[in-house]
Amino acid sequence: MAKICVIGTGYVGLVTGTCLADMGNRVTCVDIVEAKIALLRQGTLPIYEPGLKELVERNVRAGRLHFTTSYSEGLDNGDFIFIAVNTPTGTSQGEADMSYVESAARNIARQLDHEAIIINKSTVPVGTGDFVTRIVRNHLAHADVNFAVVSNPEFLREGSAVQDFLHPDRVVLGSSDQQAARKVATLYLSLRTPLVITDLYTAEMIKYASNAFLATKISFINEIAQICERLGADVKEVAAGMGYDKRIGRAFLDAGLGYGGSCFPKDVRALAHMAAEAGLHPQMLHAVMEINQDQRRLIVAKLVELLGSLRGCTIGLLGLAFKPNTDDMREAPAIDIIRWVTSQGATVRAYDPVASETARQTLEREEIYLDTITFCQNAYDVADGVDALVIVTEWNEFNSLNMPEVRRLMRRPVLIDGRNIYKAEEMSRLGFTYRGIGRGNMGADVALLLATEQMNPSPLPQPERSVQTVRSHA
Length: 474
Ligand code: NAD
Fold this sequence. Notes:
Elements: E1 3-7, H1 11-22, E2 26-30, H2 34-42, H3 52-61, E3 65-68, H4 71-75, E4 80-83, H5 99-111, E5 116-120, H6 128-139, E6 147-151, H7 161-166, E7 171-174, H8 178-188, E8 195-198, H9 200-231, H10 235-243, H11 264-277, H12 283-307, E9 314-318, H13 333-343, E10 347-351, H14 356-365, E11 373-375, H15 379-383, E12 388-391, H16 403-409, E13 414-417, H17 424-429, E14 433-435, H18 444-452, H19 467-473
Parallel strand pairs: 1-2, 1-4, 2-3, 4-5, 5-6, 7-8, 9-10, 9-12, 10-11, 12-13, 13-14
Bound molecules: nicotinamide-adenine-dinucleotide.
Nicotinamide-adenine-dinucleotide is lined by residues 7-13, 30-33, 36, 84-87, 100, 103-104, 122-123, 154, 156-158, 262-263.
């Protein structure tokens, strides 16, 4: 059993601390936000993450997991100190704001009175390991204390964070002190996962390169979607066809509203900034960001195309969080869509299964007038009297809605499927004016179904509309 301190009790810190406790360690989580720690001490989670509440309760009960706002209490004889604080975008230049990491490092230094390994779990620019080493050394209250710094970037995804932490594809560790990196590796041995042990800079870069690659896949398929829409192909079919190729893989090939959240947007920006600072011109990263922003604009363009002016219209939004199974609203496409449609004179009705409260707070912070938005109790409530419905987040419950009832409730039957969750033909049959993303060929759903049913021997039905027909309608 190791004694561990985790600094920062957000999505990454709380999951890391809780899972490490569940793996048999004694963990103290530290946060500067008193309200957050007070909630955790009462047994209430400040974030929504599937499976986390039960795990926190179990480990608190077992006496392995503690919460505090005090660094000295948190660091008390800890062998390993994880830094898991936020690293948001700083100024408009796109660089990561390192003030939280800097403050955490300074606070650690002031309290550290025994040998320990400081592990950076936050996503941080290349060179941050050295930066943290300098700060700690310069502020050590006990100058003779030995410490090492290890980079251990985190790859968990919100919505499946606990599973991801406990079943990672790999654990990356980087340090100029390989012995320290190997000590940290012992914490992960029970996970039986590949360990990549490398130098500090490489470990830090692995995280940025991974996120930038995934964001690139999303922007790539979104660009393909735009071409599909013009030429009469169906991007869902295209992605399925591409995805069978092992060199490509099916993951992250879902065309839609683009990426959002607390990681991809800021990490692509920060990597582009790092490259520019190094005198490079990261053209692809800029294209990835531009395409991503265009996907959000596209939704508003489709609304204008189908409704004419948005003035006086009511737009319904299904989903607000940047992706399903989270209440995280950071850089969620819903924010831009709400800003743009309300600035054109529309009002909004919106529903999200868990993110309505964080959405309300986020929109307030973004200075978007809340009196133009009605937060609804469910999807049917949203549909009531709207001129158009937009699927913003692909929550599971939106797959099983009574769509004839949704259609009946709407003032005008415009359905913009920002996540391609519905079958175009079916929605048209129900009387919706349906627009997905990159779905030029309305007959393609049938072929996709057969493909996923492992080579059904019956012949593929002919698409109802040929590519040529679709083109002539375009
Ligand atoms: P978060 O905003 O949810 O949590 C950060 C926490 O750190 C907050 O509770 C904040 O109060 C606390 N904090 C800030 N400064 C502090 C300080 N000096 N001392 C103690 N606590 C402090 O952020 P997050 O989503 O958990 O992300 C943390 C880091 O992990 C970021 O660098 C992020 O890029 C990276 N990351 C996030 C994810 C994700 O899915 N959220 C995945 C992988 C990596």
